Amino acid sequence: MICHKYGGDLEKVITYPLFKVGHNSIVIIKKLPIFQCQNCSEYLIEDPGYGES
Ligand SMILES: [Zn+2]
Question: Distance from the CA of 23 to the center of ligand 1, in angstroms?
Fold first, then answer.
């Protein structure tokens, strides 16, 4: 996949987003694979239906 902004390569990375749900609580949703651009801060969330091919 290629960044649609500058045409840079997107690297697949796994993130673990944290969501604050209260004063003292956070929730880790789950592993979230994203494609992070190497040239800018752009990223795409992996489409579950996209597949690895
Ligand atoms: Zn980019």
Answer: 35
In this structure, is residue 23 part of a structural domain? yes
Measured in angstroms, how far is the CA atom of residue 41 from the centroid of ligand 1?
6
Is this structure's pTM higher than 0.70? no
In-domain check, residue 32: yes
Give pLDDT, residue 53. Answer: 53
Domain, as residue range, for 21: 10-45
Residue 52's identity, in one-letter code, is E
Q: How far away, in angstroms, is 2 Cα from ligand 1 center?
A: 8
Of 51, 19, 20, nearest in space to 33 by CA = 51
